[in-house]
Structure formats: structure tokens, C-alpha cells
Model the fold of this input.
Amino acid sequence: MIPILGAALQSVAFGEVAPPTGKALRHNQEGRLTNLSPAERKEVEAARQTAMQDPTVQAAREKMEQARQAFQSAMDAAMLKADPSIQPILDKMHMHEEPAD
Done:
């Protein structure tokens, strides 16, 4: 819920749609699979699992996670600078975040 809410708030605030993350990303990926047959889904999932073992993919995923965390930290800091009174709200939001994979 929080990633979806964050993306929605960002799109309203900045007039753009951020790439989905967390649950929103998984939901988006699931949506891409809806046009596939069960056999095609199995093929794609098998290829994905193999690809996830590739050191290049693992390194890219780690960089992506670090970039996501850096963005979130920068966004929180900027939001607090704009309105320090939202600290308790941010704390409450972060309590419900999914742990990093």
C-alpha cells in the first residue's frame, strides 16, 4: 500500500508517474503475465529464476535497491525540510514497509 500511495502522491505533486516499486512493481509484473498462457508463464518464470542467478543481474539488483534507498532518504529529508511536523507520519509509514529482499 505504501509504495502505491507514494507513487500516487509523487505523480500528483510532481506531475509525473514514478516507476513502481515493492508491491506495486510485483503487481505490475503480474499484470504483464495476464496475456500469457500457463505454459508461457512457466517458461518466463523459469528463465527469470535462472537470470536472477546471473552475477550481473544480482549486482544490478543491488545497485537498484541502493538507489531506491538513497531516493527514499533524500525524499524524506526534503519532505521534512518542507514540513518538519510530518516526522511522526513518516515514522508511521516506515513501520509498515516491507523489508528489503
The chain has a mean pLDDT of 80.
